[in-house]
Structures are given as structure tokens and as C-alpha cells.
């Protein structure tokens, strides 16, 4: 039986890497994209191959349409099919108030976190839709609990970009439901990944964990587990759902 293929953007670290490794152990062939961290991406590929499935890492900036097209072209050439997309690639910036934010910061935030996810979803639909001759499939968008909380004084732009991703999830889910494609999102809360360090707050999880009802930060694998369920046949009647994985932080 031919294995299914999942494309995970931003798969070299954090939630994306955890999802790639878990998918491999559940029998998926895995393609990951990465922008800068080639060594980390190659380490994920090695782990996937050790699990007995095929793997490919492709350097691509999801905020650049030409690079997204090349990424999907590599999937076509190497595997000839696509069964799931995990829109995981994203960026955050230094904590700032809206009054301090530049247009350049805002454009980068929405280009990567929102527009990039739209372009990837578009390409996935073109390949998976039964209307276009595909087999159907699943799209899982990695949003954030910030889209509900607003991230005041820190990341209002990030929260807004993820809020747009939530709305895209709902609209696209209805648009392609009759074409064999399910579209859902996970909204992680305070998760132990290095994205906090890239935003200048490496101690953020430890510092804020006491505010979470479960009194701890989450692990990338806990988010990956939900993503894998939404990719699987076990969720075949689930679409348009926004699944909060936040330790009760609502």
C-alpha cells in the first residue's frame, strides 16, 4: 500500500519538527520546508528515514510565491502525490506596542504568517481537490491562542495575522468540503519552543507558566499529536474546527 505524503512548512524546529517525526512513526512520508536552518532540517530528515519512511527537506521562504511554487514542484517530482499540508511556518518579532510598529514589520508578519499560508493552501487544494482530479486530503493550519487573546503590549501584529489564519480556516473548510479536503487549525498556547528566543524572550515559558491553569508550558509533541489526529482518517468528519491546545489558557 502506497504511503501518504505530508508537507510540513517550517519543519526544521519546534512544532514542525515534532510533527514530522511523529508523522514518520505513524507511516507517513514527509516533506519539510525550512528557510535558514539546513543542519536542523537534515537532522529531521535523518530521523524520519530512521523511522522507515521517505523524507525530503526543501529550502523555501513561504512568504515568496516563487519559492512556494518550487517547493510544491519538488513534492510533485519526488513523490507524485500530496495528502496533507501542515501550514506551520511562521515568524514572531520583538515585543512592541502597536504605536512602535513599522510598516516593514507588519508586512513581514502578514506576508509569512498569513499570505504564505494562503499560497501553500492554494497549491495544496490544486493537488488534493477531487474537482481537480485529486484524492482529497487534509490541511492543518498552525494558528495561536494569541488570535483569541490579542497579545497586547507584545505581539498584536502576530495575533492579528493568526486571527486572519483562523478565518481562512473557516472559509476554506466550507469552500472545499465537497471536494474531499478537510481544513482545520490548532491554536497552541504557551509551548516550549525556540520561537520565544527569536522574539527576544527565551525565558517566556518559564516566566508565564504560572498564569496557565495547568501551571506549565506545553510541549511541541502535544501539539503535534493533535495535528496528526486532524490529518488522519480518525477525524474524517471534522472540518472547520479551531482546536485550542493551551493548557486551559482561554
Going across the biggest sheet, name each strand in turn.
3-2-1-4-5-6-7
Order of helices and strands: EHEHEHEHEHHEHHHE
Shape type: globular
Give the count of structural domains.
Answer: 1
Strand content: 5-15%
Helix content: 40-55%
The CATH topology name reads: Rossmann fold
Helix/strand/pairing category: alpha/beta
Radius of gyration, in Å, reads 17 Å
Distance between the first and last residues' Cα: 42 Å
What is the number of helices? 9
Per CATH, which architecture? 3-Layer(aba) Sandwich
CATH class: Alpha Beta
Instruction: Write the CATH homologous superfamily.
Output: NAD(P)-binding Rossmann-like Domain
Low-confidence stretches: none
Summed over residues and divided by their number, the pLDDT gives a mean of: 93
Main β-sheet description: 7 strands, parallel
Number of strands: 7
Description:
The chain has 250 residues and is α/β, with parallel strands linked by helices. It has one domain (3-243): 3-Layer(aba) Sandwich (Rossmann fold). The chain is built from 9 helices and 7 strands; from the N terminus they run E-H-E-H-E-H-E-H-E-H-H-E-H-H-H-E. The chain has helices spanning 14-25, 38-50, 65-79, 103-128, 146-149, 156-176, 195-198, 204-208, 220-231, and strands spanning 5-8, 29-34, 55-59, 84-87, 137-142, 181-188, 242-245. It is globular, with a radius of gyration of 17 Å.
Amino acid at each position: 500500500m502506497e504511503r501518504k505524503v505530508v508537507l510540513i512548512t517550517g519543519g526544521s524546529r519546534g512544532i514542525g519538527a515534532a510533527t514530522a517525526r511523529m508523522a514518520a512513526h505513524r507511516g507517513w512520508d514527509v516533506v519539510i520546508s525550512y528557510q535558514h536552518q539546513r543542519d536542523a532540517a537534515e537532522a529531521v530528515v535523518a530521523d524520519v528515514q530512521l523511522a522507515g519512511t521517505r523524507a525530503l527537506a526543501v529550502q523555501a521562504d513561504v512568504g515568496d510565491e516563487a519559492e512556494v511554487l518550487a517547493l510544491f514542484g519538488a513534492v510533485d517530482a519526488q513523490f507524485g502525490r500530496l495528502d496533507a499540508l501542515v501550514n506551520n511556518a511562521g515568524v514572531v518579532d520583538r515585543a512592541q506596542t502597536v504605536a512602535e510598529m513599522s510598516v516593514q514589520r507588519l508586512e513581514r508578519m502578514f506576508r509569512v504568517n498569513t499570505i504564505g499560508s494562503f499560497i501553500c493552501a492554494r497549491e495544496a487544494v490544486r493537488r488534493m481537490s477531487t474537482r481537480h482530479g485529486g484524492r482529497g486530503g487534509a490541511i492543518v493550519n498552525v494558528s495561536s491562542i494569541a488570535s483569541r487573546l490579542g497579545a497586547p503590549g507584545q505581539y498584536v501584529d502576530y495575533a492579528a495575522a493568526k486571527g486572519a489564519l483562523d478565518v481562512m480556516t473557516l472559509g476554506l473548510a466550507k469552500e472545499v468540503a465537497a471536494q474531499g479536503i478537510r481544513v482545520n487549525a490548532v491554536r497552541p498556547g504557551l509551548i516550549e519552543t525556540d520561537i520565544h528566543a527569536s522574539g527576544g524572550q527565551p525565558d517566556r515559558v518559564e516566566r508565564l507558566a504560572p498564569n496557565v491553569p495547568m501551571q506549565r508550558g506545553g510541549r511541541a509533541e502535544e501539539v503535534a499529536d493533535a495535528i496528526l489526529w486532524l490529518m488522519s482518517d480518525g477525524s474524517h468528519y471534522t472540518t472547520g474546527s479551531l482546536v485550542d491546545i493551551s493548557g486551559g489558557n482561554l
